[in-house]
Amino acid sequence: MFLNALLIALLSSQCVWARKSEPSLSEGDAGLFRGSDKYDFAVEVPAAQMECFWHFAHQSGSFYLTYMVQWVTGMANNQRLFVTVNSPQGLLMASKNEAFGRLNFQTEVTGFYRICLGNHNNQFGGIRVFLSFGVIYEGSEESERDVEEGEKVLNSTLTGIEESVQKLQNQIFHMWHHYNFARMRKGKDHYLLLSNLNYVNWWSATQSLVILLSGYLQLLVLKRLFHTDHRRPRC
């Protein structure tokens, strides 16, 4: 009796271990909905740090991730972003090290997939990233339509961001141009004031020397006018 119970327990445990990580569609009582989830948001990654997110996905799904670096802050000068996606078991599914990119792969197991954004290229400045990711499952036309609409919105948003960034860069260039001219004019005025100061100082010193020399000469002339021989007293 004890041996039969032990054998039944072993068989049931083996059945549990061999079970798929995701129940089939007929198992409605499992509480799992075979749909697609998508997210669109922006996040800031500090200097020399990493931000990670976990996204739940079922088996046999198409995982997608689109990202774009919008701008950099601080002393950052590199817009490249190191993006990795790992499976629930920790396996690397996709990676990219660019300022803009798209990652796609098929989900093989059910679980939480980890998305990590690494700002390792900038040690003294953060970056702002726009993310759009989700999972598409086969036979879900509505999800595919939503994803296509989301991609269109994302593309239009990215286009608007690029145009705004281009306009901002042009305005910054013009501001920097005027600022450089203002600095040059300020430097010119500074050196002109120094030159005038030196001119006034030298001219004042020269005039003072001329005045002293002319007074000394006048004194000599006056002494010559009243000069007599030694037999007569001087006035």
List keywords for this structure.
alpha+beta, Jelly Rolls, four-stranded antiparallel β-sheet, 2 helices, 8 strands, 43% helix, rod-shaped, disordered N terminus
Helix content: 40-55%
Sheet/helix structural class:
alpha+beta
Based on the coordinates given, report the CATH architecture of the domain at 36-138. Sandwich
CATH class of the domain at 36-138: Mainly Beta
Shape annotation: rod-shaped
- The N- to C-terminal Cα distance equals 158 Å
Q: If you average the pLDDT, what whole number results?
A: 77
Strand order of the largest sheet: 1-8-3-6
According to CATH, what is the topology of the domain at 36-138?
A: Jelly Rolls
The number of helical elements comes to: 2
- Profile the largest sheet: 4 strands, antiparallel
- Percent of sequence in beta strands: 25-35%
Flag low-confidence runs.
1-35
Family: Belongs to the EMP24/GP25L family.
Membrane topology: Single-pass type I membrane protein
Transmembrane segments: 202-222
Domain GOLD: 13-135
